[in-house]
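## Example pair
The file below holds two records. Each record gives the amino-acid sequence first, followed by its structure token line.
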Amino acid sequence: MANAETYEQRQSTYGEEQEMDQHRSLGSLVKEIRDESIELFQQEVELARTEMMEKFAVVKDRTVSIGIGAVIAFAGAIVLLMGIAQAISVVLVYAGMAAVVATWLGPVLTGLVVLLVGGAMVMSNKNKLEEETVVPEKTVQSMKENKQWLKEKTT
């Protein structure tokens, strides 16, 4: 009979341990999900920060290119208006045009060409800049995936 009581005591103790393991497992699972969620959130924030820094660097580079293009176009317009305009005016006079007309027509034609080149540079980089978005697309996609993952873990 001592053996029977020992067996029953062991069964009772085993049952209590299983019940405690189940409670501990549920608690552990909740803690694990919480910890993983916190870590995931921190990683998402870091990803968003990194992605935003990359996007701002691209926007900054495009903006600098637009500025440089504008300055070059302006400087080019001045230099060309002074040098080439004089040469065009001379050619127009030799072609039979009145000197009074050739004096203003040469700089106008030269300035028009320079402004077209500078304008093309500005528009090219402006279009590239418009293609950039400041929305952290990778982070948004990753957060959607994480939301789905968390939903699956909790259901």
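Second record, same layout:
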Amino acid sequence: MLLKTSILAVATALFAMPSTLTAQQPSQPCNTGPYIVFFEWNDSELSREAREVLDDVVNFYAACGTASVLMAGHADRSQPVRQSVKISQERVDAVAEYLVSKGLPGSRMASAALGSSQPRVETPDGVREMENRRVEINFAPPGRW
């Protein structure tokens, strides 16, 4: 009887605590970014490369819990300020639409259209520079912008 009780106790303990029997998956740290997608001149269409970066954003977001998704749209200095802000907003909108379509919560997104005010590469006015035509994406604690 004692042997039967011991086997039953061990079996019960093993099935009651399956987490001790399975390998623990290492938790992936939250990579807050920046993630950067670039655009052709005067365009807000996502390229194949941009979609690949955004797919990475979606995958990395899973490790960040309830983080806010902060997006900043930029333009080069080849156009007047009003037009560069407009195209920056269109780029941010395209990125946000893609991320939402992949399951990121739109309610956790915040964006700004910065036009040509923060170039990655300094250029004179009127110069087209691809590195300045971009959207930068970062993750931050919830509610921070």
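Notes on the second record: Confidence is low (pLDDT under 50) at residues 1-26. Strands lie at 35-38, 68-73, 109-113, 134-140.
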